[in-house]
Write a structure and sequence with these properties.
Length: 256
């Protein structure tokens, strides 16, 4: 089941409301004492329903979760749709120059502060979650993928794992690499990161940049799953196909 309700995110959009979404597995209603890990995601409107997705195609997450019986709550929030490139600002950890939008002032810290101090607390209050770090994950694609890397490094006390699909590494490579290099990551941090072989051509030097970023995470002893998706492009249809891979990486059972 997917529940939705309106929330406000005052810092970037004032009193305006936007949709929040929560997916609850079927067992949630059958086992009233059971608690669940939570995956927090960006671009909530693109995850569950084609009718709500920006380009008419969602990740099909509800169907996947129902069909596989994955015991996980998914909590997500709609992005900032303001025509002044609100989404880019909201999901940018650092300032950068966009080839179309021009200079972007990154509000990623404001966004993540809201996620961990407001949204996560609300989800833990409303639902039977396992609120500890070990059972809390984060994921997104494109700019949401970049925010996932930011969350894993700068908010590692909250998230034990993340899945960054097609992260927008090109926005500010130097700051991103320094962010990872200077981070202190807790043991057992897990990260799934991928990039499509087709979309590699969209930005100059992406192969080398992807290689450098993955190498930095390996040096930090992150349990890294890194993939170049064969013939993968920058679309929800492609990201939908990667769901089994990143779910497996995040929920892999260890002995600890």
């Amino acid at each position: 089941m997917v529940k939705k309700w309106k929330v406000t995110f005052p810092a970037p959009t004032g009193p305006e409301t936007r949709w929040a979404y929560v997916y609850l597995p079927e067992s949630y209603f059958e086992e009233p004492e059971k608690r669940y890990p939570v995956l927090y995601m960006f671009d909530g409107h693109n995850l569950f329903s084609d009718e709500e997705a920006s380009y008419g195609k969602s990740w099909g997450l509800k169907d996947y979760m129902d069909q596989t019986g994955t015991e996980l709550i998914i909590a997500a929030v709609e992005c900032n749709h303001h025509p002044d490139f609100g989404r880019l600002k909201e999901y940018a950890p650092f300032d950068y120059d966009d080839p179309v939008a021009g200079p972007i002032s990154g509000c990623g810290k404001v966004t993540m502060d809201w996620y961990v101090k407001k949204f996560k607390r609300e989800i833990d209050r409303r639902y039977r979650t396992l609120p500890d770090r070990r059972h809390t994950f984060v994921s997104g694609s494109s700019m949401g993928g970049l925010m996932t890397l930011y969350a894993i490094t700068e908010y590692n006390q909250y998230f034990s794992g993340g899945a960054a699909l097609s992260p927008s590494l090109w926005t500010n490579p130097e700051m991103i690499e320094e962010m990872i290099r200077s981070s202190w990551l807790k043991p057992n941090t897990r990260l799934y990161m991928d990039y499509g072989s087709v979309e590699m051509k969209n930005h100059h030097g992406m192969v080398r940049l992807f290689q450098r970023v993955t190498s930095l995470f390996i040096m930090k002893r992150v349990f890294l799953t890194s993939r170049i998706v064969p013939y993968g492009d920058h679309t929800e249809a492609c990201w939908e196909k990667q769901v089994p891979y990143f779910m497996g990486a995040l929920l892999y059972e260890d002995e600890d």
